[in-house]
Amino acid sequence: MNIETNLSLVGEQIAQLERQYQRNAGSVRLLAVSKTKPLEAIRAAYQAGQRLFGENYVQEAVEKHSALTDLVGIEWHFIGPIQSNKSRVIAQTMDWVHTIDREKIARRLSEQRPDDMPKLNVCIQVNISGEESKSGISLESLPEMVSLVKSLPNLQLRGLMAIPAPQEDEAKQMAVYRPLSQAYLELASSDSMIDTLSIGMSGDLSAAIASGSTMVRVGTAIFGARDYI
Q1: Who's near 211: CB < 8 A, 6+ residues apart?
Q2: Which of 94, 91, 148, 100 is nearest to 122 (CA)?
Q3: Is-annotated flag, keyword Nuclease (predicted)?
Q4: Average confidence (pLDDT) over 188-204
Q5: Does the CA dihedral 223-228-69-57 come out positive or negative?
Q6: Which of 148, 100, 135, 138 is closest to 120 using CA atoms?
Q7: What is the reported pTM?
Q8: Thinking of the domain 3-223, which architecture would CATH place it in?
Q9: Helices 103-112 and 142-151, packing angle to 10 deg
């Protein structure tokens, strides 16, 4: 398992899709999903030039943040569900949170963000497939949540995130993404700080980048299976 080689291959795939869909070169950032991966794997990816890392589990994310403070410029993104009793440690350690979908969590993160830290970058999670098992607000509820997040002093709204249900083919996946992409464009046109559409994983990179994704989340293709050593 060569993490440097894997990162290069994923980067080439993203660059090819940017060209294919007439996106600007470098307009899609890669978030390396490092959940369950050991510290050595993250260090190897960092040494290969990767800076954005995504974690799903609070305790694991906090432990990695503490253990890797020597990695200058590393950027920690929390991409998992948030329980109220875990919001404080997230507010104290993470650079980004992608999973804002409740007023209570948004307010707690803002209140608990230390005054000596920059604003916490956040994305609002939208449930675009209507799955009851998935987190996220409806598109209909988005304006109200946008207003709330913008009113909170220690949060910086950066965009939208979604984890849609898998579709049979790329055209159907793009159709699912279309309303979200339009909502994102409308938000971004009125606020220069909104610059992130966090959609796309290994299985739907092409559809996501075609739909305007600015950040894709990739794990196994970089780090290998969970038992990576």
Answers
A1: 174, 177, 178, 180, 181, 197, 199
A2: 100
A3: no
A4: 95
A5: positive
A6: 100
A7: 0.95
A8: Alpha-Beta Barrel (3.20)
A9: 20
